[in-house]
Amino acid sequence: MTDAAVPPPPSKGERTKERIVAAALELFRAHGYEATTMRMVAEAAGVSLGNAYYYFENKDLLLAAFYREVHEAHLAAARPRLARKRALADRLSAVMTAKLEVIEPYHRFSALMFRSAADPESPLNPFHPAGADIAREGEQLFAEALTGSSTRVPSDLAAELPGLLWTYSMGIVLYWIHDRSPGRRKTHALVDRTVEMIASAIKLASNPLLRPFRKKVVELVRDLRFPTEV
Amino acid sequence: MTDAAVPPPPSKGERTKERIVAAALELFRAHGYEATTMRMVAEAAGVSLGNAYYYFENKDLLLAAFYREVHEAHLAAARPRLARKRALADRLSAVMTAKLEVIEPYHRFSALMFRSAADPESPLNPFHPAGADIAREGEQLFAEALTGSSTRVPSDLAAELPGLLWTYSMGIVLYWIHDRSPGRRKTHALVDRTVEMIASAIKLASNPLLRPFRKKVVELVRDLRFPTEV
DNA sequence: GGTTGGAGTTGAACATGTTCAACAACGGTC
DNA sequence: GACCGTTGTTGAACATGTTCAACTCCAACC
């Protein structure tokens, strides 16, 4: 019974959509986002301009498709590395390094990802329905990095850490966008050093003596984590 | 001798530019950024479309002019409040509250400020020459908040704090952009609580016992503060 | 086989940011 | 006052994201 595993054959529309995405990703890679016009995408996909808009309401949604692809690549790159590490700092480092490596080819136009991520209207924004999946999966990855590590974390903190770490990773990406150093040396240095600090801070915060302080921070995060809620 | 204080009379061009800015700000306020077209701005300013582009290379630069106006308003609102506070937490709170009040009328399109701020190419980005002034003045304001307070801060830390606090304020603004709660309650709550935590952390970090740890953090910040440097 | 309704597709049209060659106004110089 | 270079100004043209009414294709149904 392999029925459940066999996806239905792609419809004509699905194949067309796939062609459009592929064309767009290739053009983005080659020319960047702004320089890639919808007409170029349509032509490269062997499709009319209007047809591209039949599948993607606007250009941003093509970017969202691209973003998802990058995200999948990150997951695929990070998980095998996690399997080889125990120490928390190493595991966090594995996740972040995988991220930096995956996004490196797109440095020249990755600012776009970020601008969209900061825009409440954009499908890339983690609070937007269309972008929520990626954020959730990103947090999930950090959750795996935590649970698989040799470090024990109190449960109240453990509940909030994945979200915090995901936010941290967004901050790193923002730094990386502006990083002009060769080989993105500064971003890697920042990751190396902050990852150590975070691991230390987590161990410290797990100390029973610090429970009251920890509670206060966890409460703050829990209360205010979702600005979009009322 | 009041010569130095008397600015030269505005040239024709300066007056035209002023009219364009004024028209743009009013239209932004009324309709938001995207919905305001350059043609609308030109017409409202009583000027041809091409002429608007003579003064502002692109629409983003009009947004930059708007951003500067908001920034000036923030400085003007924050400084008198600082004069009435001594405690560090109160002073930080004064600066942040002034900021939130000043930007509140523009909540609907303020995401634009942020997207531009995150974009290395944009004039709003603090690492971009055109946006650097605003960032510097923002840090300066935090420097005033610090030096005027009753709290003593070790000099190594004092050198880095304004920049860190400015970064913190950007984070608050990012949160505020997504805040849908009535009266922006959640953002205010976040400010209230984080400002306390920051003041406590600064006092804690000033403790001589923590000098090694503080040195480590200060060094990290100093080394990596400017991603755009090589 | 004909009909029908939805999915897929097209090209033209539109709105808007941006550019540009040409023109006008102005201020200084002789 | 005539000349001239700089500053200011214009409207048309262009590129590109987006929309839309019309068309084709195709599978399901009678």
Write the layout of secondary structure elements.
The structure is a homodimer of 230-residue chains.
Chain A: H1 12-31, H2 38-44, H3 49-55, H4 59-82, H5 88-103, H6 111-118, H7 129-147, H8 155-178, H9 185-206, H10 211-224
Helix pairs in contact in A: 1-2, 2-3, 4-5, 4-7, 5-7, 5-9, 7-8, 8-9, 8-10
The structure holds a DNA duplex (30 and 30 nucleotides).
Describe what this molecule looks like in 3D.
Two copies of one chain form a homodimer. In chain A, helix 4 runs antiparallel to helix 5. Chain A is elongated and about 65 Å long. The N and C termini of chain A lie far apart (47 Å). With 230 residues, the first copy, chain A, is mainly α. The first copy, chain A, has ten helices and no strands. The mean pLDDT of chain A is 89. Chains A and B meet through helix 6, helix 8, helix 9 and helix 10 of A and helix 6, helix 8, helix 9 and helix 10 of B. The structure holds a DNA duplex (30 and 30 nucleotides).
CATH level-four homologous superfamily name of the largest domain in chain A: Tetracycline Repressor, domain 2
Strands of chain A, count: 0
Shape of chain A: elongated
Assembly state (oligomeric): homodimer
CATH class of the largest domain in chain A: Mainly Alpha
**Could you please say which CATH topology of the largest domain in chain A applies here?**
Tetracycline Repressor, domain 2
Number of domains of chain A: 2
Major sheet size, sense and barrel closure of chain A: none
Q: Averaging pLDDT over every residue of chain A, what do you get? A: 89
Share of residues in helices of chain A: over 70%
Estimated share of beta-strand residues of chain A: under 5%
Secondary structure class of chain A reads mainly alpha
In the CATH hierarchy, the architecture of the largest domain in chain A is: Orthogonal Bundle
Low-confidence stretches of chain A: none
Number of helices of chain A: 10
What is the radius of gyration of chain A computed over CA atoms, rounded to a whole number of angstroms? 20 Å
Strand-and-helix sequence of chain A, N→C? HHHHHHHHHH
Biggest interface found: A-B, 35 and 35 residues
Termini distance of chain A?
A: 47 Å
